[in-house]
Structure formats: structure tokens, C-alpha cells
Write a structure and sequence with these properties.
Helix content: 25-40%
Strand content: 15-25%
CATH architecture: Alpha-Beta Complex
Strand order of the largest sheet: 2-1-3-4-5-6
Number of domains: 1
Number of helices: 5
Number of strands: 6
CATH class: Alpha Beta
Largest sheet: 6 strands, mixed
Distance between the termini: 12 Å
Length: 193
């Protein structure tokens, strides 16, 4: 089975490939020659995942999926949310985003947050959504060298390490994206049988 993953984010691609059985091959946007930065103009995480998947289905016709993720911080009324990648500006700079988040939380005691991923799948004429959420908190200082995005600042409930301190396998077992991908894989396995 071949699926297009509507992304060129090498970190996301690696995380997802790590969870897929050998029978499912994913191709990136680059692999199909799509160099367009698909607009993410929806007001929700679900909406952006659908926009990206719809774009690929409409322009290329392949079975495909897209994801969108966001960090939702309680003390910031759910921000950065759908704007997580561009929180500190359009250049999507992880360090700048993390610095802005720490600045916004500097005088806040409540550091509860959750990470959310929604995967939109177009498969043989059907559309499906898979959602993964993990609760946790924002650390006061960055910890770890791995991961990407807000991983150095996010610690899941019940853990002592940030996402950036976990191996890829450890992170996939508990993360928002890992949970959504697990649902996607279960669905695709059923279709293969």
C-alpha cells in the first residue's frame, strides 16, 4: 500500500515511518514533485489537516493523509493552538516559538498544556479523521536535544523527561502524533485484510 503524506517535514515523516508496518509505504510531497507550501488558513487543527489532504487529493488524485498539530496551553486560553508553528512569526522558527512561549508563561503558575494532532485521511473515496491528544505541562527551561518544535518544553503527564529527552520509540508510544498514527495504522491494517 502506498500513501502520500502531505508534508515535507523530515521530523514528522521519520516519526510516522517509524510506526508504520513494512506493508505501508509513504511518500512525501517532495517524492511526488509537489513543492507548493499548502496554505494552512483554517481556524482549527482539524481544518488545516483537511485542507492539506484535500489539496493533494484534488491536485494529484492519490490516497493521502495530512496532519496538523498544535500545543494548547491552559493559561494562554489554548494558544498557540492552530498557530503553533508560526507563534513567533511566519518563518516557523522553533527557538523563537519556544522563547515566546516561555515569555508568555513567565508570570503564570498554571503550566498545564496538551499537544493535539489530527490526521485527515483520503482513502479510496472515503475521508477519515484520527485525533491524538496528550496532556502534560510546560517546563520552565528547555530540556533535551532531540525532537523538534516545543518538544524541549513539553513534559507529558506521568513522565520525568521532556519529549526532547525521549528516544523516537519512547516518544511515539506516548505522543499526540503517535496516538493519532496508531489509529491510522489500525485502520489501514483492516483495509489490507
Amino acid at each position: 500500500m502506498k500513501l502520500i503524506f502531505a508534508s515535507n517535514n523530515k521530523n514528522k515523516i521519520q516519526e510516522i515511518k517509524n510506526q508504520l508496518p513494512d506493508s505501508i509505504e509513504i511518500l512525501s510531497l517532495e517524492d511526488i514533485g509537489c513543492m507548493v507550501d499548502i496554505p494552512e488558513t483554517a481556524a482549527t487543527i482539524e481544518g488545516n489537516a483537511l485542507l492539506k489532504a484535500d489539496y493533494i487529493k484534488r491536485h494529484y488524485g492519490f490516497n493521502c493523509f495530512a496532519d496538523d498539530s498544535g500545543l494548547e496551553v491552559d493559561a494562554l486560553d489554548g494558544a498557540p493552538g492552530v498557530y503553533s508553528a508560526r507563534y513567533a512569526g511566519e518563518e516557523k522558527n522553533d527557538q523563537a516559538n519556544n522563547a515566546k512561549l516561555l515569555g508568555e508563561l513567565a508570570d503564570k503558575d498554571n503550566r498545564k498544556a496538551n499537544f493535539k494532532t489530527v490526521i485527515a485521511l483520503h482513502y479510496n473515496g472515503e475521508q477519515h479523521l484520527f485525533t491524538g491528544i496528550v496532556a502534560g505541562k510546560i517546563l520552565e527551561v528547555a530540556q533535551g536535544e532531540g525532537g523538534f518544535g516545543y518538544d524541549p518544553l513539553f513534559q507529558a503527564e506521568g513522565m520525568t523527561k521532556s519529549f526532547a529527552e525521549l528516544t523516537l520509540e519512547e516518544k511515539n508510544a506516548v505522543s499526540h502524533r503517535g496516538r493519532a498514527v496508531s489509529q491510522l495504522v489500525d485502520f489501514l491494517k483492516e483495509k489490507e485484510e
